[in-house]
Amino acid sequence: MIANFFSKTRPINFLILSVLIIVVYIIGLGNNLSGGFSFMFLIKKSAFLIPIILVIFILNFIIRKNLLTEDNTYAIFFYIMMLGFFSNSF
């Protein structure tokens, strides 16, 4: 099922991958939450989420221009999963 979903590049794939990176980011923040939770903390951490999403779209551009994957979004999916596995980088 996941192979059929990511086998072709469609706009819905990027929407779902964007939601996935937000979920992975929130889970990573929850794991690293040692102090209190404040509004300023939320603003600082959400400001870091924007460059992460931009890096994903830049990565997609590089992959498409160099023809590293034919016409699928597996590379972006694996990049997001690697960010999730190493969530201490957030």
UniProtKB/TrEMBL annotation:
The chain crosses the membrane at residues 12-30, 42-63, 72-89. It comes from hydrothermal vent metagenome. This is Uncharacterized protein. Keywords: Membrane, Transmembrane, Transmembrane helix.
